[in-house]
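Researcher: Sequence recovery benchmark, item below. Answer with residues only.
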């Protein structure tokens, strides 16, 4: 019997997944949680073979939960299940030592088969997503351009970006324009969308040394 921990913040989706897996004679959902920060404490308590984690979890996102779970309970394999199927998420999931990555629209039979393979130590990745990740081009942005775009994504104005990075307003505007041009976006909003989907935006604070 393969013991499964399920992490999904939407109760209806979580219930549906539990019901689907209940039909599988060799799979048993031994725990279900709705927050990412509940994953590791619960896993340490129930000792599942596989953790099926959504990416967008409150408290701690599923990718960070996967990395922490690998560190604290390496015997538990992780399968990331998400509705936001993006190449950047796949790369992040693999970096977090997840063995599987599937979209939520995958058929129930495919999910059950993926859990079995992950439990056996096999890697399972949606083929179309894997091809999309291979086709993803390298980040064309400089670290400063990425940082400027990240600040713009959170709603900072050009003057606010300039103040945070200790540069002139003109310099900040030039960096932003260069970032838009390099992403191929039609404007700032489109450039932010493209950079987010490609995984080009940093998650740390600005580099003051540049």
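Model:
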């Amino acid at each position: 019997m393969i013991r499964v921990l399920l992490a999904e913040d939407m109760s209806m989706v979580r219930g549906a997944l539990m019901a689907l897996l209940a039909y599988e004679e060799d799979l048993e959902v031994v725990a279900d949680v709705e927050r990412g920060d509940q994953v590791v404490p619960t896993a340490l308590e129930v000792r599942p073979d596989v953790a099926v984690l959504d990416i967008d979890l409150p408290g701690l996102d599923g990718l960070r939960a996967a990395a922490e779970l690998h560190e604290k309970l390496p015997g538990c394999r992780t399968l990331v299940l998400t509705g936001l199927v993006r190449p950047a998420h796949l790369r992040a999931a693999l970096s977090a030592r997840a063995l599987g990555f599937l979209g939520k629209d995958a058929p129930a039979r495919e999910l059950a088969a993926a859990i079995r393979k992950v439990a056996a130590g096999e890697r399972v990745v949606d083929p179309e997503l894997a091809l999309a990740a291979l086709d993803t081009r390298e980040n064309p942005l400089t670290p400063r351009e990425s940082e400027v775009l990240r600040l713009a994504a959170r709603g900072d104005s050009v003057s606010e970006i300039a103040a945070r990075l200790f540069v002139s307003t003109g310099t900040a505007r030039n960096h932003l324009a260069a970032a838009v041009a390099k992403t191929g976006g039609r404007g700032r909003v489109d450039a932010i969308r493209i950079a987010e989907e490609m995984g080009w935006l940093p998650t740390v604070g600005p580099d003051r040394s540049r």
